[in-house]
Design brief:
CATH architecture of chain B: Up-down Bundle
Number of domains of chain A: 2
Number of helices of chain B: 4
Shape of chain B: elongated
Strand content of chain B: under 5%
Radius of gyration of chain B: 17 Å
Largest sheet of chain B: none
Helix content of chain A: 25-40%
Distance between the termini of chain A: 59 Å
Strand order of the largest sheet of chain A: 2-1-5-3-4
Largest interface: A-B, 19 and 17 residues
Number of strands of chain B: 0
Number of domains of chain B: 1
Helix content of chain B: over 70%
CATH superfamily of chain B: Fumarate reductase/succinate dehydrogenase, transmembrane subunit
Structural class of chain B: mainly alpha
CATH superfamily of the largest domain in chain A: Alpha-helical ferredoxin
Distance between the termini of chain B: 47 Å
CATH topology of the largest domain in chain A: Fumarate Reductase Iron-sulfur Protein, Chain B, domain 2
Oligomer: heterodimer
Radius of gyration of chain A: 20 Å
């Protein structure tokens, strides 16, 4: 694997009537580069290509994209993991509007995130130091707090594609459960009351695309199951 | 919060429970019928009449029929809200489904209790 054929989704709403695919040939010199490195090499060939990237080590969550049909972070995805027959197809994350090339408009994604009140809510008087938690209660947040909001999961979810304005989506629901599970949060009842309609949580059909693509190895489907259990036990 | 008019439970939790409970009922009914066919490989009129003539079988079949209606109502309402975006078309489709299920239930009741 040295010459890599890369096909990149291009769309500039100011000059293009429709999106199109541009082909590039990249010489990897046999190295197993990250997909982001390939994008940087393409940018040297054609500086008009735009994409988001920042930390280049899977921490910031900026460079989520669709690589050979699979969502992931380009900076931590080695070519050996996605490339087949020396061919790589790069597209923006599916299901959200494209601003330009590989950059999507994440407003709806953030709107759903905002809806679940992603911050600690506690009506009790603050103690003089900090609110303490037992090690067991702290353990409940493992697998939840690590989410970097890259949107790989929500944009791989058909339920989010069909109802991005009503279904919170796996990323938002993972965070919803992160605060429902937090022993220091006292707004459990209010949080659940905002999620008991047929769309917000229950549009999840458990197909687990979110689990399949999460670059941090998290499990939103399990968190959604826990929210369902809480909803049933609090409502019944 | 999203309001919804045509789902049976009017709320995600009850819709979800309706679908799960009705699925269990339908599963049990299917298993029962399969077992019955195992013991009656080629049933004649008297075997059928004997089975469906008993009160508990009528009640069980009615329960299964109502479960099908509830299960299909939740399921098809969900499919409609996923795939049919124009509200007028979607509501028309769901009303047609509800009417069809109602007809099936009434017809089914007539068949079951007519034995």
């Amino acid at each position: 694997m040295s010459k890599l054929q890369v096909s990149v989704y291009r769309y500039n709403p100011e000059s293009d009537d429709a999106p199109w695919m541009q082909d590039f040939e990249i010489d990897t010199q046999g190295r197993d580069l990250m997909v982001l490195n390939v994008l940087q090499m393409i940018k040297e060939q054609d500086s008009s290509l735009v994409y988001r990237a920042s930390c280049r080590e899977g921490v910031c969550g900026s460079d989520g994209m669709n690589m050979n049909g699979r969502n992931g972070l380009s900076c931590v995805t080695p070519l050996s993991q996605v490339v087949k027959n020396d061919r790589l197809v790069l597209r923006p994350l599916p299901g959200l509007p494209v601003i330009r090339d590989l950059i999507i408009d994440m407003s709806l994604f953030y709107k759903q995130y905002e809806r679940i009140h992603p911050y600690l809510q506690n009506d009790e008087r603050p103690p003089s130091t900090e609110r303490l938690q037992s090690p067991e209660d702290r353990d409940k947040l493992d697998g939840l707090y690590e989410c970097i909001l890259c949107a790989c999961c929500s944009t791989s979810c058909p339920s989010f594609w069909w109802n991005p304005d009503k279904f919170v989506g796996p990323a938002g629901l993972l965070q919803a459960y992160r605060f429902l599970a937090d022993s220091r949060d006292t707004h459990t009842r209010e949080r659940l009351a905002e999620l008991d309609d047929p769309f917000s949580v229950f549009r999840c059909r458990g197909i687990m695309n979110c689990v399949n693509v999460c670059p941090k190895g998290l499990n939103p489907t399990r968190a959604i199951g826990k929210i369902r259990e809480m909803l049933v036990s609090h409502t019944a | 919060m999203v309001s919804s008019i045509f789902n049976p439970g009017r709320n995600g939790v009850s819709d979800w429970l309706i679908q799960r409970v009705s699925a269990v009922v339908l599963g049990l009914y299917t298993l029962f019928l399969l077992a019955w066919f195992l013991f009656n490989p080629s049933p004649d009129y008297y075997a059928w009449a004997g089975l469906f003539g008993s009160f508990w079988m009528k009640a069980f079949t009615l329960l299964a029929l109502l479960s099908i209606a509830a299960h299909a109502w939740v399921g098809l309402w969900t499919v409609a809200t996923d795939y049919i975006k124009p509200a007028a078309v979607r509501n028309g489709f769901v009303m047609f489904i509800i009417l069809a299920l109602f007809v099936f239930v009434v017809w089914g009741v007539q068949v079951i209790w007519g034995v």
